[in-house]
Specification:
Length: 270
């Protein structure tokens, strides 16, 4: 809900608008201008930069999907989809979309879509996976993912909540697909840049999401992520800090350290 709120609020509050999503406000199902509880009392500039990063990572993922479709890729897998609307925005592209998430989350999303009057595209397959009982490989195979053909994997806002072994296992699985592309994000260690004025604010947000039952667990440096990807035979890796990603879309940020906070990665196996 917090990520969906950021995408929706971006549609009405930010200029320039980095990411356009006509479904973002509709699927939210609540007043868009209300403030999220996790943002209360935090530096407004930090909250805005976080919102812009969420918009920018969605824009980058969307651009990656569009470019892959133009090259003939016809499978897109969205891991930890939440209230993502990618499949709704690419209707008629001749592509199959696979949304992976917990069964309860997908039931909630289906209800949101119905209440918002948003039709579930025929090209979208929901892949409900409780990882205590079913593996990612088995779940996607059962949903009809063809691993003999290429695919784009979108994995946003998830890695920080997983153990390092789970992150590594997911990267290994995607690499084993063969001709695959991946867009995902991760967090630098909050304490790795002690001179960054946003470190205290980031820690405050981490404490709040932990109190809500979703603690940040895994942090990585750029070198660690690159080494992990290369060890799994990814052939190409691009890593951008939040500041660098926003600059890509013409958004200027403050004087925060470039390595701090979230990073966005694009990787491919061939």
């Amino acid at each position: 809900m917090a990520v969906a709120h950021a995408r929706a609020y971006h549609q009405v509050a930010d200029e320039p608008r980095v990411f356009c999503d006509p479904f973002a406000v509709r699927i939210l199902g609540e007043p868009v201008l209300s403030e999220m509880e996790f943002d209360l009392g935090l530096d407004p500039d930090l909250v805005r930069e976080r919102r812009l990063f969420i918009a920018a990572r969605s824009r980058f993922a969307d651009d990656t999907v569009a470019a892959a479709i133009a090259r003939g890729i016809d499978q897109v897998v969205i891991l930890g989809a939440g209230l993502d609307t990618t499949a709704c925005r690419h209707v008629g592209a001749g592509v199959r979309f696979f949304e992976v998430d917990h069964p309860n989350t997908q039931t909630w999303k289906r209800r949101r879509l119905s209440e918002a009057g948003i039709t579930v595209p025929a090209s979208l397959a929901f892949v409900p996976i409780d990882f205590e009982n079913l593996s990612l490989a088995a779940g996607l195979a059962g949903a009809g993912l063809d691993r003999s053909r290429g695919a784009v994997y979108i994995w946003l806002g998830v890695a920080v909540y997983l153990t390092r072994s789970s992150v590594d296992g997911t990267l290994r699985y995607i690499a084993s697909h063969g001709k695959s592309e991946l867009v995902f994000d991760y967090f630098y260690p909050v304490t790795s840049t002690p001179n960054d004025p946003t470190a205290t604010q980031l820690q405050a947000r981490a404490n709040r999401v932990a109190a809500a039952g979703e603690p940040w667990i895994s942090f990585f440096t750029a070198d660690e992520i690159r080494d992990s990807l290369l060890s799994h035979s990814y052939a190409h890796v691009e890593d951008r800090s939040a500041t660098e990603l926003l600059m890509l879309y013409g958004v200027q940020t403050g004087n925060r350290a470039r390595d701090s906070g979230p990073h966005l990665v694009y990787a491919r196996t061939a």
